[in-house]
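Good morning C.,

I know you're traveling, so I'll keep this short. The sequence:
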Amino acid sequence: MKVCLDEDISPDVAAILRSMGVNATSAHEAGRQGFSDREQLELASAEGRCLVTRNRNDFILLTQEFFAKGLPHAGVLIVPWTVPPDNFRFVAKRIAQYVKRAGNSPTEYLFDFV
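The tokens, ready to paste straight into the viewer:
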């Protein structure tokens, strides 16, 4: 599974993920700061990447819309706000664990991040 980090997650997490063997990029690295949530999800989906974000509510609504309309969607992983955003290694480790468990076809829609 490939992941794309939304702009609310540090690009440092993407660098750590890559050092762990995860195919990861970030909105920051791709020059996508300021893009709408819809644009972020569309671009991640077009690249076959699960979008990783802290923006729970907006992406739940977008995911429901994408599924209802049959639009491409490669998944969304929500990082809870209770996880400190500056604990880059912890965030990366948990994302890597999810990627390993999910493989190429995520079947889990809920993941115990903490």
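Safe travels,
E.
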